[in-house]
Amino acid sequence: MPRLSWLLCGACAAVIAQFVAGMAFVKSAQGFSTRAKPSFIETWIARTAHSMAIPAKAKLRVNPIANSLQVLAEARFHWADHCASCHANDGSGETEMGKHLYPPAPDMRKDRTQQMSDGEMYYIIENGIRLSGMPAWGGSDHGEKDSWKLVHFIRHLPQLSRSEQKEMEKLNPVSPAEFEEQRQEEQFLEGKGR
């Protein structure tokens, strides 16, 4: 048994040394800018740590909220108002904020997300992901039900229609400057700005 322990310690030390050497190379070549695409090693370590961070019991949880058109409508509203600034209305992550996170916001429509269990998605929404831009949203009054509804909506993202996206655009938050521009446009259209 002591031999196995030494072997495992040696393997861990080798992996850590390789990681440190790789990070030193990256640092000397380009620094630790978040503009660079994550390396294969960074991605592998992050995914492994992420997978290990979700308790097995959480992965097995089943969504207690039945899916319906009403649930999807409520979750669509919630997503447009709270999640779209990073993940985009369509879940692509193609937003100014989402593209500049490190790692960038994932495309929620792709297999990497869609193949997660409902419990994994729920856990991530509630608890966030350390060392990424994904915050923990759990702990609010209505959070648990809303988070489970969002799981249904995330599953719906690959089938999101153009009309649903258009509806969501009206629900997206606007900056104070955008709000003022909209107000002035409305006044002009009503004949008050002439």
Overview of this protein structure:
- This protein is mainly α and 194 residues long.
- The protein has ten helices and no strands.
- The protein has helices at 2-30, 40-53, 56-59, 69-87, 96-99, 111-114, 118-127, 143-156, 162-169, 176-189.
- The radius of gyration is 22 Å and the shape is globular.
- 15% of the residues are buried.
- The mean pLDDT is 85.
Could you write a compact summary of the structure shown?
With 194 residues, the chain is mostly helical. The chain has ten helices and no strands. α4 (69-87) packs across α8 and α7 (118-127) crosses α8 (143-156).
For the structure shown, list the relevant keywords:
single chain, 194 residues, mainly alpha, globular
Rounded to an integer, what's the Rg over CA atoms?
Answer: 22 Å
Q: What's the number of extended β-strand segments?
A: 0
* End-to-end separation: 87 Å
Q: Mean pLDDT across all residues, rounded?
A: 85
How is the topology of this model organized?
Elements (H helix, E strand, L loop, with lengths): L1 H29 L9 H14 L2 H4 L9 H19 L8 H4 L11 H4 L3 H10 L15 H14 L5 H8 L6 H14 L5
